[in-house]
Amino acid sequence: MNKIGFNVLVWSAVMSDDLFPIVDRLKSIGYNGVECFIGDDDTPAYKQFGDYTRSLDLGVTAVMVGTKDENPIDKSAIVRKKAIDRIRRAIDKAHDMNATIICGPFHSGHSIFSHMPPQEEEYKWAAEVLYAAGNHAAQANITLALEALNRFECYLCNTMEQLSKLINLADHPNVKAMYDTHHANVEEKKIPQSIHTISPVLAHVHISENDRGTPGDGHVRWDETFSTLAEINYDGWLTIEAFSRNDPAFANSIGVWRDYSEPWAIAEQGFKFIKEMLKKHENKIPNQ
Q1: pLDDT by residue (tens digit) across 20-48?
Q2: Sign of CA dihedral 108, 177, 129, 142
Q3: CB 213 within 8 A of CB 185
Q4: Is the pLDDT of residue 247 over 90?
């Protein structure tokens, strides 16, 4: 059975006990878990958050991004080694939080472009970094779920076809893929085909509207999405990812220049929407 999560980035990218009242309310709405951003800070706040969510019987997933100075596809082997070390540190923090998944586009530096299409050598470098990180993730019983982004934020993996290629190159049981409805809305021509393409390695799903506001209020092809997820028997997390200007530093880093919907409206209406879509498509079965 699918679990429904909510990414607290709509309020803050900083891990602290300021998130506790938010977690309480998400629990009261009915969410099964929360998703948090893993930054470069090294504080006990991650373990404290994990202890708190465990006391509420809430699951935890995490998200992170790649950076310029620790870019897995940099030409420098030194920089690529730094990328491995950074992902390993993130795995340790995720373990402190009791997280089971780290998702995100950390296969390459976020919004770092080479002014060329992705090169085979870059896929090879990313796969090597992810394989090494996968070994560390296996020790913590954590799955790395890599994300394809739209062309304005990434060039290595924009589509499920490219992401599938990378995951297969990494060839590690703890290195899987994530499907994000916002990015797919930009890059994929046929939603069912894209989900079937990534289904063998799919470990996580972000439910995100085309404008990053309330799921169901925009033009993402939700019926196709939920119907196909039912067809492939996906039973993992369905986590809402929405953004706002509440954390200006983070918002600036990802190009969020306006508020799309009020955060608690997103949380409350988004939860109802996912429940409705799951019920609507619960009897869908693969074509025989």
Answers
A1: 999 999 999 999 999 999 998 878 999 99
A2: positive
A3: no
A4: no
Q: What's the rounded Cα separation, in Å, for the pair 168 and 200? A: 10
| Cα(166)–Cα(97) distance, integer angstroms | 27
Pairing, β 202-207 against β 237-240: parallel
9 Cβ contact list (under 8 Å, min separation 6): 35, 36, 37, 63, 241, 242, 243, 247, 250
Pair 78, 135: CB distance under 8 Å = no
Q: Residue 254 contacts by C-beta under 8 Å, 6 or more apart in sequence?
A: 110, 153, 243
> What domains does the chain contain, in order, with CATH numbers?
3-281 (3.20.20.150)
Contact predicate 204/176, CB 8 Å: yes
Read off the tokens for 62.
Answer: 């995490």
Res. 288: pLDDT tops 60: no
Distance of CA 260 to the CA centre of its chain: 20
pLDDT digits (tens, 9 = 90+) for 254-282: 777 888 889 999 999 999 999 999 999 98
Q: Are 214 and 264 in contact (CB under 8 A)?
A: no
For the entire predicted model, the pTM comes to: 0.95
> Above 80 in pLDDT, residue 14?
yes
Q: Return the closest-CA partner of residue 39 out of 12, 1, 2.
A: 12
